[in-house]
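Weekly modeling sync, notes
Attendees: AB, CL, MP (scribe)

Item 1: holo prediction request
CL wants a bound-state model with iron/sulfur cluster before deciding which constructs to order. AB pointed out that an apo prediction alone won't tell us much about the pocket. Agreed to run with the ligand included and paste results into these notes for async review.

Input as submitted:
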Amino acid sequence: MLTPEERKFECVHCGFCCIALRIPVFSSDIRRIQIHLKLSPDEFVEDPPDYYDSERGWITNTNLRVLRQKHGQCIFRQENCQIYPFRPLACRLFPYSFVSKDNDIVLRLHKLADFCSGLFAGKDISIKNLHQIAQKIVDELKKNRNNHSEG
Ligand code: SF4
Ligand code: SF4
């Protein structure tokens, strides 16, 4: 559950999440980026590094690939995010996260949210919008698990 203070957020493009986190990508994320940039997936995604399950990871215990990094930051970051309108779901959720249990989604702050310069500032965020993003992630994780176990 998020407190009223925690519901205030506006991205100020400080870049912390683009540098410190490895961003998992679902097949829908990859398709969306491909369509806009006409790149092959290998140009912008790679296998997760060994430390992925540590605190820099996002969604642990999955076979998801992550956005490539270049010079220590996401390949799509220059001064700002170059793909902001069609960025991955995980980027849309930060600095928030969620737990999902028995078809219920509970929003919370990401464990590294304190480093986000846009948190506790700006307007109230749309809880409905965050729920929709979290639900999409849950659906994608299920799809990913099914595909993986069928393979
Ligand atoms: S896609 Fe954009 S918001 Fe997401 S990590 Fe890369 S630069 Fe940052
Ligand atoms: S850390 Fe927060 S303010 Fe900085 S780029 Fe990421 S979401 Fe935006």
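Recorded for review: The mean pLDDT is 89.
Action items: CL to compare against the apo run; MP to circulate these notes.
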